[in-house]
Specification:
- The chain has a single domain, classed as Ankyrin repeat-containing domain (Serine Threonine Protein Phosphatase 5, Tetratricopeptide repeat).
- It has seven helices and no strands.
- It has helices at residues 14-21, 29-42, 46-54, 69-76, 79-86, 103-109, 114-131.
- The protein has 139 residues and is an all-alpha fold.
- Residues 1-9 have low confidence and may be disordered.
Length: 139
């Protein structure tokens, strides 16, 4: 279930919370919640994304296209989701999608949000420096 509310002040009901947390036998909780996090971010639902992160969603989970929640937030320029995701130290700015694009590139290319693009580029460079790896590598 993906909640398609774009109001950042929207409070989730008990049924919506239960639907977001529902697992089938044998499911990897972090991965399932991570994919739901991606879906919530696609639709700009920052409140549901916050709820999933609080319950163990993998913030760096990649979908079948190699995109993370940050990639989708950057591509759609939904700032409440970007603000939420970048507030976590675990968020990786160095992950690329299957076309070799970083989230910072999608902010420029698709989101047309140059301020977010600059923010993500700087965070990417800082993270790469801290890890001792190149900031920009083309796949």
């Amino acid at each position: 279930m993906v909640l398609q509310y774009s109001h950042s002040s929207y409070n989730l009901t008990g049924n919506e919370q239960a639907a977001l947390l529902k697992l089938n036998a044998g499911d990897d909780r972090a991965e399932v919640y991570g994919l739901r996090l991606i879906a919530c971010t696609k639709y700009g639902n920052a409140e549901a994304a916050r709820f999933l992160l609080a319950h163990g969603a993998d913030i760096n989970c990649q979908d079948k296209y190699g995109m993370t929640a940050l990639h989708y937030a950057a591509a759609t320029s939904y700032r409440p989701c970007i603000r939420l995701l970048t507030s976590f130290n675990e968020c990786s700015y160095l992950l690329q999608d299957y076309k070799g694009r970083y989230a910072s590139e999608l902010a420029y290319e698709w989101g047309k949000d140059y301020v977010v693009g600059e923010l993500l580029t700087k965070k990417q460079a800082r993270q790469a420096y801290a890890q001792g790896v190149p900031a920009f590598v083309k796949a």
